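DM from R.C. (forwarded with permission)

"hey, sorry to bug you on a friday — could you get me a structure for this? deadline for the figure draft is monday and I only need the backbone to look sensible"
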Amino acid sequence: MTNLFSFLRAALVLALLLSGRAASAAPASPRIVSLNGTISEIICALGRQPQLVGVDVTSTYPEALTKLPKVGHNRNISAEGVLALNPTLVVGTTESLKPEVAAQLKAAGITVQLFKQDYSVAGTKQLIKEVAASFGATAQVPAVTAKLDADLAKVKKPAAAPKVLFIYARGAGTLMVAGQGTSVEKVMQLAGARNAATGFSDFKPLTAEALVAANPDVLLLFDSGLQSLGGKTGLLQIPGVAQTTAGRTGRVVEMDGQLLTGFGPRLGQATTELASKLK
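My reply, with the result:
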């Protein structure tokens, strides 16, 4: 009997040692810092939110992200701020991280994964698939894309396509308009509108002359941008605004910036909301 107890005790000790080794060998969950609001949304939609330990300031949805440490705006990220969060993985888009910062992070032993973003429905679905594949979450993709398709099916475009001018504002001293090929123009088109700004790509400073020449039917701004101008009243004080059709009729639309231009899982919601506000 004594020998039997000794054998059982030895077997138990061995089992505990082996289980301890297995536990120590199991890979730890990645500590992720996301430098792009859309990538952050996708990670959360795929059920990987608990792995996020820090985000950039554009990562505002879902609301739980607002409680995470911020590392600044993705266009002005410093390696030091990111490294302070001790991440094992940094993710973003090819446009959201300067090459020199990416090099610093890699030199510190951090894995950096950047995704290319295309501002279209097909591009959004592809981005969701690529992010999911990198996190081993492909099983969640059908549900996420099905929700996106269902939201897009609810879009009711205006009978006639209005001319819309998007103004990026950070106070009256910083006013830019969105040209061709921008994410803003792409979501306008999905919502049944056309860009009043033509003849240039990306963004350029707003001038009174160009504003009057464009003569938009609707002015579109981020809600934060409109607030920085003092609301609609402040916007109408900008030179040239009152002389446009939008200014005379008071047609000003404001939307959450990340929702409007993110081209992520909520693209259908953004398009539906914009289309309804353009009617």
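R.C.: lifesaver. The mean pLDDT is 91.
me: no worries. The first helix runs from residue 2 to 25.
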